[in-house]
């Protein structure tokens, strides 16, 4: 059953993501934080974030670019950032929460953009809710049991520890290549994440981070999913040098999904390829959603 909004619906907005108000909705007794912007008509686009990500981890260039023509909604999953409750330790439970969130906002049909862990969640939602999900974009992600996915938790912890010792954001090494261009793109991305200076989200807690790591480890060790059950059109994108969810997983997804379109892998780009190459990704994503 859908739950009414707890916050008044926003008026049509063309403002930047940096100014989008943070709102909340009740989902089975828990409060989910979200932001939205863009035109109010049309099928909404729900964004599903990566490991440890909160509302402020979406690249404003990607959100603003999509919201120029689409209603875009970002949200914190249960127990993460400004959302209350206990963070699930399975991808399947995260997917159920995502569906409950969408229905709580009163939507009968939405599109999904899932990045990394959010892409795992999007695959489950698309398979289990064929009437709710119209189209899907999967970026920097892979199927259950995909090669290298079970190593994501170890890579993330190592990068976090190294980042703390070197005072360097771990996303720089995890999301971008080590080339001069890759590092430049990574630093520019980190600066964009600082553009919002008020009403910023809370960082993920250690307990929630551990729960997500457990969920990803389980996803990486699962038997491969039957992706033939996903009948929606799917756009698949990534950088060609993804060290977190190795790029061959992207090719595997495109080959196994019945209605997939593969964006040529972005050169000299990694896990954050859609952020690094936002000027190419946003028009392609809009074309796919509007076709």
UniProtKB/TrEMBL annotation:
Record InterPro entries: AB_hydrolase (IPR050471), AB_hydrolase_1 (IPR000073), AB_hydrolase_fold (IPR029058)
Domain AB hydrolase-1: 44-275
Region (Disordered): 1-24
Pro residues bias locations: 1-12
Record keywords, A-Z: Hydrolase
Metal-binding in keyword set: no
MF (Gene Ontology): hydrolase activity
The keyword Hydrolase belongs to this UniProt entry's keyword annotation: yes
Name of the protein in question: Alpha/beta hydrolase
Source taxonomy: Bacteria, Bacillati, Actinomycetota, Actinomycetes, Kitasatosporales
């Amino acid at each position: 059953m859908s739950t009414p909004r707890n916050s008044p619906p926003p008026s049509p907005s063309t403002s930047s993501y940096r100014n989008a108000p943070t709102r909340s909705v009740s989902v089975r007794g828990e409060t989910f934080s979200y932001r939205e912007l863009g035109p109010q008509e049309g099928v909404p686009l729900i964004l599903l974030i990566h490991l440890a990500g909160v509302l402020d981890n979406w690249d404003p260039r990607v959100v603003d670019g999509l919201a120029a023509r689409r209603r875009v909604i970002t949200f914190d999953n249960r127990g993460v950032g400004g959302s209350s409750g206990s963070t699930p330790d399975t991808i399947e439970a995260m997917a159920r929460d995502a569906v409950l969130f969408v229905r709580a906002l009163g939507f009968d049909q939405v599109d999904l953009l899932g990045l990394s862990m959010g892409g795992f969640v999007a695959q489950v939602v698309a398979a289990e809710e064929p009437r709710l999900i119209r189209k899907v974009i999967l970026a920097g992600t892979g199927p259950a049991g995909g090669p290298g996915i079970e190593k994501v938790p170890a890579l993330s912890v190592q990068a976090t520890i190294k980042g703390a010792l070197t005072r360097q954001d771990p996303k720089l090494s995890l999301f971008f290549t080590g080339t001069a261009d890759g590092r430049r793109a990574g630093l520019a991305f980190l600066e964009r994440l600082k553009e919002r200076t008020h009403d910023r989200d809370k960082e993920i807690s250690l307990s929630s981070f551990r729960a997500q790591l457990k969920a990803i480890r389980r996803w990486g060790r699962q038997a491969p999913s039957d992706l033939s059950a996903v009948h929606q059109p799917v756009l698949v994108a990534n950088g060609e040098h993804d060290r977190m969810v190795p790029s061959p997983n992207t090719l595997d997804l495109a080959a196994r999904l019945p209605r997939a379109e593969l964006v040529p892998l972005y050169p000299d780009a990694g896990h954050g390829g859609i952020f690094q190459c936002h000027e190419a990704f946003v028009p392609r994503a809009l074309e796919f959603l509007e076709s």
